[in-house]
Amino acid sequence: MFRISTKATKLFTRDGSFFERRKCATLSKLSSLVDIKPEVREALRASPQSVVALESTIITHGMPYPHNLETALQVEQIVRDKGAIPATIGIVGGRIQIGIEGDRLAKLAGSDNRHTIKTSRRDLAYVLSNGLDGGTTVAGTLLIADMVGIRVFATGGIGGVHRGGENSMDVSADLVELGRTPVAVVSSGVKSILDIPRTLEYLETQGVCVASYQCADLDFPAFYTRSSGSMAAYNLSNAAEAAAMIKTNCALGLRSGFLIGVPIPAEYSLDRKVIDEVIEQALAEADRLGIRGKDVTPHILAAVSKITKGRSLESNKALIKNNASVAAEIAVELANIESSASDAPRRPSSKRAPVVIGGSIVDTCITVLEDDLKLNN
């Protein structure tokens, strides 16, 4: 028998990787469900702040093959070129993948998305227990990234309040997860197909800090277009400013996250009026066909791509690459801040001897290397 502290403890999984959490019992159960790519594992050991999480529904449901696989690999390389480590998150064969190996990434990209589940918090237990494949949504990726201490996450656009959501109550779980997960999501704002003003109001209610990136007028982007007509609460001028905000959020112990809106590169921006008309047509068609819930977004994205003759797909590729570049710059700055803090000289200790009244209690944190460790409950 031995006692494990409830403070953050490192527990090694079968492949040598670890998770840092407060409850070791949770860790011991989770370790049997997760694979971490060696490149990511080493980065998490050395500097978790330098890792950038990437979601996988872009691969499984957001783009057609082979564009999805090509883009996923290019995005990972962009993150590396900026000095950070990419961690694409998804589910293969009922196991969470944090950093998906090449063959598994190809499997997700090439699979029939009718047999690959868009996986949010509500779906995780079902997908894992049934040994299925899943593309993690923004919410699902946020949850998993937080489990291992990743603080920066790049995606295309987040979900939100659907048009007519005041009647249907169709609100993406992404918004709730952002309100309870201290991770910064770098995106091109909220998907254009959604009710952006109501989405921003909902995020405010959830305590999520929403900021534009390098937009002095606070104009919040709308995925395919650089402007949504809605304003962000703040503007971040550069990666260092964003990293300082994330660091402060962690120091305060706040459990809410950030949404950082990066406008799509100007040369790939689409005409806002045209996009709105296309979306209205696609929404009407979805309603006529009885398409509901999480199936609406893929339907509308496909319709937009068809009507814009593929230009929207190129825009989608461009914005996710740009977001990954910005996220990597923020992660590198965050790692630098953490490194500087750890290297700072300590304050001289007092020469006075400490006085202990009553007694002292020592909590011991341990590192477990055995593969088959079982806790005695």
Give a verbal description of the structure:
- With 377 residues, the protein is an alpha/beta fold.
- The protein has one domain: Indigoidine synthase fold.
- Helix content is 43%, strand content 14%.
- Strands 3, 4, 5, 6, 7, 8, 9, 10, 11, 12 and 13 form an eleven-stranded mixed beta sheet that branches. A two-stranded antiparallel ribbon has the order 1-2.
- Helix 4 packs parallel to helix 14, helix 7 runs parallel beside helix 9 and helix 12 packs across helix 13.
- The longest helix is centred in the C-terminal third of the chain and has 33 residues.
- It is globular.
> Can you tell me the CATH architecture?
3-Layer(aba) Sandwich
What's the CATH C level? Alpha Beta
Strand content: 5-15%
The amount of helix comes to: 40-55%
Mean of all residue-level pLDDT scores: 86
Query: Number of domains in the coordinates?
Result: 1
* Total number of strands: 13
Shape: globular
Counting DSSP H or I runs of 4 or more residues, the number of helices is 14
